[in-house]
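Q: What structure does this chain adopt?
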Amino acid sequence: MKLDPQILQFLGSLAAILVLAAIAWGLKLGPERRLEDEASARRAANEAVDGFEPQDVALDRNGRGALLQDGAGAILLLRPHGTHFAGRILGPSATARVEDGLLVIDTAEKRYGAARLDIVDAQAWVKRIEAIG
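A:
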């Protein structure tokens, strides 16, 4: 049985696309995750810092991050990192301000950087972050 070269080229291209899709799936590449609700923020917080039990949650309106505070007053910042969320417990060097209606948090860590969150009552969170230390 002799295959037309165009069909052979099509089948080869299709196989290559499927292999690339499998590699992307295996590397967990894809669309950015979103925090849909407080429950998803709590799960992401537990993935970032094992045992962190938030009492208060401020979720970004677009699901691109969150601030969570536990009963001891520790504040955890979650922000997107690829298809996961990276979290940092804010230390005394962290700063926060409201800029153009967004809460801007600088963790003072070069590798983690700053985050911009669109949350309700941003000014109250600025005060909470300033009280750390």
